[in-house]
């Protein structure tokens, strides 16, 4: 595998590894949001664990990235913190794909117009 400055080229990783990396990143994003909210509320990891009904060590493992939160634990954290996550979806369509779609719509519109008499 090619490396750049000692790091693997992400684009050269197998798809399964890319997806695992993405899952880890998503987990860390959620945990970062939770951490920010805990700081605002001056809540410790131990307090969060009690409110969520799990161990402080499990919460620590989530924050370190050793484990990934599941949807149930995230929902319990939302409830414990009095917050609600909002998730937006971004399209994975590339710029080139969008251009092809736009061009094909133009062709369809042009074909559906009645022809003008000369």
Kindly describe this structure.
The structure is a single chain. The protein is mainly alpha-helical and 118 residues long. The chain has a single domain, classed as lambda repressor-like DNA-binding domains (434 Repressor (Amino-terminal Domain)). It contains five helices and two strands. The chain has a two-stranded antiparallel ribbon. Strand 1 (3-4) and strand 2 (7-8) form a beta hairpin. It is extended, with a radius of gyration of 23 Å. The mean pLDDT is 82.
Q: What is the succession of H and E elements?
A: EEHHHHH
Low-confidence stretches: none
Identify the CATH architecture.
Answer: Orthogonal Bundle
What is the molecular shape? extended
Tell me about the biggest sheet?
2 strands, antiparallel
What's the gyration radius in Å?
23 Å
Note the quaternary state here: single chain
Spatial arrangement of strands, main beta sheet: 1-2
Number of helices: 5
CATH superfamily, please? lambda repressor-like DNA-binding domains
What is the share of helical residues? 55-70%
- Classified by CATH, the class is Mainly Alpha
Question: What is the total domain count?
Answer: 1
**Global mean pLDDT:** 82
């Amino acid at each position: 595998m090619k490396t750049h400055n000692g790091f693997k080229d992400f684009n050269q990783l197998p798809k399964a590894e890319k997806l695992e990396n993405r899952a880890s990143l998503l987990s860390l994003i959620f945990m970062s949001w939770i951490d920010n909210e805990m700081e605002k509320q001056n809540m410790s990891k131990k307090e969060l664990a009690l409110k969520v009904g799990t161990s402080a060590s499990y919460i620590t493992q989530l924050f370190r990235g050793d484990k990934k939160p599941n949807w149930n634990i995230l929902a319990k954290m939302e409830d414990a913190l009095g917050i609600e996550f909002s998730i937006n979806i971004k399209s994975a369509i590339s710029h080139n794909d969008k251009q092809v779609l736009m061009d094909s719509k133009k062709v369809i519109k042009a074909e559906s117009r009645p022809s003008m008499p000369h």
